Amino acid sequence: MKRFIPNLLMAAVSFASLEAMAATDLVLLNGKIFTADRANPKVQALAVQDGKVQQVGSDAQIKALITPNTKVVNLGGKALMPGLIDTHSHAIFGGLEMVSANMEDEVVDVDELEKRLRGWRDDGKAKHGDVLSVAGMSSAYWSQAEALGKKFNNGEWAKVPVVFTGSDHHTAWANNVMLERAGIDAALLKNLPDAEKGTIGQLADGSPNGFVVDAGWDRVATKMPVPTAADMLTAAQSALRYNNSLGITAWMDPAANAAPGEPVYALKPTEKTVGVLPAYKALAESGGMSAHVAALLVANPKSVPADLDVLEKVRQQFQGVPNLTLPGIKIFADGVIEYPAQSAAMIDPYSNSHKQGELLIDPQHFGELVSAIDQRGWLVHIHAIGDRAVREALNGIAQARKDRQSGVTHSVTHLQMVNPKEFARFKPLNVIASMQLLWASADDYTTDMIKPYVSAAAFRYQYPAHSLLKQGATIAGASDWPVSSPNPFNAMAQAMTRTGPMGVLNADERLDRETMFYAYTLNAARTIGLEKQIGSLSPGKQADFIVLDRDVFSVDDKALHDTQVLQTWFAGREIYTATR
Questions:
Q1: Which of 54, 108, 242, 559 is most buried by its number of CB atoms within 10 A?
Q2: Residue 398 half-sphere exposure toward CB, CA atoms < 13 A
């Protein structure tokens, strides 16, 4: 009996402790809540306990969980959604560009461009070491390579390295001083490997005209000044604040082992190739990591399975960092499609060059690589813009599925041109379509720089989101920031309208609102390998959610585009509040 009484007492204390632990921390009532849980997608109220979703339901159901210590928020009818997830964002690169000279895709004449460069030189925004660099250049400039040369190879620029970087991050223009530093001259052009021919623009006399794409751009990028660790941490902090203000609480960084100045398209990683991962680690250690980051490691497109051992050594260096996961590998299957780059791999040749672009992977052996990645339980995320690149990417994944049914979800990103024969392959292969549908606009990129050079059949299926969805593909939202804005509501509205300054880009490929809501929540969580932790407001998942300034379920498309985030919550903690 003497032993029994203390045991009873201990049980009573334990029971009381469990009851205290189970107390509801936060309740949000009277809202229009989209949970992204298909079993219970629309509710009124939400309860949070210990940073996780405790329960969702009606006001009456959730009010029953309120205790004296519960914080109660009356949403006043406002809309609430899960935190949004971007499945393709180079966030730290975006953070660096936020404080640098940037044309933001605006096209001006060369004299005005010189005026702006002069201003950015004087205020320091274009200065990176001794190089003057401007980001966000429209591809429309690359057809003016000779005009750029006449302006920026002479006068006050004759001895100053100048680089204009394309907003697509695949293309650039460099003046003669910078080309010389990169070892690019007529002699090099004569002896370029076949794989690099066309990646450096030429003048009639055989000398370079300054335009570079993909591997050519890598040659210039490796000679650019490298940001310091402090610069990288500041960029990470800026990127995080900006994403949180847009309602983004998670993203996939598809090239986390690449750093500014390192070759990306022909990267040959070693265990010391850690890219921006130290910046994410520093951000987490500072206590400011209010987002889940799924960091992918770029593998060389011609890698063999044994090369994955090196990437595993990189992964091991960054295990245990809060809110940072390293779930898999990114591979470039091709380049970009716009004239004059035309490095995207196409089934039908470009009409002007009669070439098919550049397939970076080896279709004979790519399946072996993908299968080896899959066998390790890693996901693979493949950059594929041209229809041939998409086909070969799917062929590689098909090999992995033939070898085993691992259950790992792989993805193909961009998907600008997709042959109709591929539409029905995504679902049975469990491949997610990670799409930047902000780009699905009739504008100079999709029309003037593409339409004259590709077949009518290929052009018809540009960003074929609805065709993919109709055949059962899962669509996930992505931005490719800083290539374009990371604002998810801009992309959602664009996917629904496909309207641009030059009309509508194939109205048949429009998507509905609900599809886009899932694209940036549950589907995106699957894409980055975190669907068990985030992506919906289901009991047990982390309480990441956003409160919005309008009823996003009923407003018109333009109003949806202009949606503002009032609050962002991460693990049940308010991390962003809009200033009023």
A1: 54
A2: 13
Token code pair at residue 101: 């000279």
Q: Is residue 312 part of a domain?
A: no
Does a structural domain hold residue 358? no
Strands 79-82, 32-34: pairing is parallel
pLDDT at position 4 over 60: no
Determine the pLDDT at residue 260: 86
Show the 3-state SS of 160-226: CCEEEEECCCCEEEECHHHHHHCCCCHHHHHCCCHHHCCCEEECCCCCEEEEEECHHHHHHHCCCCC
Helix (H) or strand (E) holding 547: strand 545-548
Q: Residue for token digits 């009277």?
A: 30
* CATH number of the domain encompassing residue 157: 3.10.310.70
Assess whether 42 and 100 both reside in one domain: no
Of 78, 49, 48, 46, nearest to 62 by C-alpha is 46
Tokens 């006001």 locate to 59
Domain range for 184: 91-221
| Whether 95 and 206 share a structural domain | yes
Per-residue model confidence (pLDDT) at position 281: 98
Q: Is residue 165 part of a domain?
A: yes
Average pLDDT (3-14) is 42
Condensed to tens digits (0 to 9), the pLDDT of residues 265-294 reads 778 899 999 999 999 999 999 988 999 999
Considering the domain architecture, whether residues 102 and 189 belong to the same structural domain is answered as: yes
Contacts with 487 (C-beta within 8 Å, 6 or more apart), sequence order: 246, 479
What's the pLDDT tens digit per position in 100-124? Answer: 999 999 999 999 999 999 999 999 9
Whether 125 and 200 map to the same domain: the answer is yes
For residue 322, whether the previous peptide bond is cis, meaning omega lies within 30 degrees of 0, is no
Number of domains in the chain: 2
Q: What is the mean pLDDT of residues 223-231?
A: 93
pLDDT at 481 over 50: yes
